[in-house]
Amino acid sequence: MANKEIEIGNRSISNNCVPYFIAEIGINHNGDMNIAKKLIDAANATSWDSVKFQKRVPEHAVPECQKEVMRETPWGSMTYLEYKKRIEFSKGEYDEIDAYCRAKPLDWSASPWDLPSVEFLAAYDLPYIKIASASNSDMDIIKRCCEMRIPIIISCGMSTIKETDNTVNTLEKYGNGDYVILHTNSSYPAKNSDLNLRMIETLRDRYDCLVGYSGHEYDLQPSVVASALGAVVIERHVTLSHELWGTDQRASLEISGMFLLRNRALSVFEAMGDGVKSLSEDELLVRKKLRGD
Fold first, then answer.
1. Lower CB density within 10 Å: C or N end of the chain?
2. Could you tell me the residue range of the domain that residue 247 belongs to?
3. In this structure, is the dihedral angle defined by the CA atoms of residues 14, 212, 112 and 159, taken in order, positive or negative?
4. Which pLDDT tens digit goes with each residue over 247-271?
5. In this structure, what is the dihedral angle of CA atoms 128, 134, 16, 229, given to the nearest 10 degrees?
6. Paired sense of beta strands 129-131 and 107-112, if any
7. Would you say 142 and 166 are in contact if contact means Cβ atoms under 8 Å apart?
């Protein structure tokens, strides 16, 4: 059985806690450190808890059927493999990200898309490791992440419930119980009619573990509702502008959206309360005025 409380950075994550907000920079930086730093600054300024990147060794992560597919990019026509190499940050750049986030301070992590990338990230003192939906059926990656003995946050997009059973069983067998599973629809963008937010409750009941939400929709409201349904982690892609080049930009939050989402989610969380009937001090004053007692 998973622990009902885990520590991520300086936050305790448990059921009925204020959500832990992850700003998924992913590859929206387009290989530009200046864009990455501006998005880190935005996450810090809007009081999000963490930023997250994606780490690949393209030769390992890109499927063979995609490697030689040609793609038009801002840097000219190139194969998909060349494009992935073009936007991948180096060790020196990740060292810069690590130092930049620590100076805020702001949590950071990344999703490894292959085993060499897990080893790469294991060299950093990360507060958690994130497993993307694309890797949630890769048991070798999951097992190696479990060996890191830090909290695991894993999206369960693109998976059937039986496949998610297998993923959770692997986390339980090889990990230390410190994990959060995120309900996710992996379409970019996802239609509201496909989000099925009640799965947050279904996953929590089925696995008796901490559950969050990773959203790829245009709107803010579904992520706010996810908070009301008890999501302990909220992850959203972020961008400086929807007009930037890249497949994830349109389904990402701009900085103003980051500010609005966090404030609305926190407002709803505050309004949900604890479910215990009690009279507030203000209500007691009204009671005395209208009832005389």
1. C
2. 5-291
3. positive
4. 889 889 999 999 999 999 999 999 9
5. 160
6. unpaired
7. no
- The answer to whether 40 and 102 have CB atoms below 8 angstroms apart is no
Beta strands of the chain (E only): which ranges? 5-8, 11-14, 20-26, 50-55, 70-73, 76-79, 107-112, 129-131, 152-155, 179-184, 210-215, 233-237
CATH number of the domain at 135, please: 3.20.20.70
| Local structure of residue 214 (DSSP, 8 states) | E
Residue type, 249: Q
Measure the CA dihedral 160/174/119/127, to 10°. 90
What SS3 state is found at 238?
Answer: strand
Q: Looking up tokens 């059921």, which residue turns up? A: 15
Q: Residue 186 has which token pair?
A: 């992996």
Its sign, for the CA torsion 131, 136, 138, 142, is: positive
Identify the pLDDT of residue 188. Answer: 87
Strand order in the sheet with 20-26: 107-112, 50-55, 20-26, 233-237, 210-215, 179-184, 152-155, 129-131
Is residue 97 within 8 A of residue 89, CB to CB? The reply is yes
- 21 touches 52 (CB < 8 A): no
Rounded CA-CA distance 203/245 in Å is 35
> What whole-number distance in Å separates Cα of residue 58 and Cα of residue 114?
9
What gap in Å lies between CA 188 and CA 175, rounded to an integer? 30
pTM of the model: 0.94
- What is the spatial distance between Cα 64 and Cα 84, in angstroms, rounded to a whole number? 13
Number of domains in the chain: 1
How far is the C-alpha of 125 from the C-alpha of 98, rounded, in Å?
9
Cα separation, 93 vs 108, in Å, equals 14
Per-residue pLDDT of 107-119, as tens digits, reads: 999 999 999 999 9
Burial of 224 (0-12, 13-18, 19+ CB in 10 A): buried
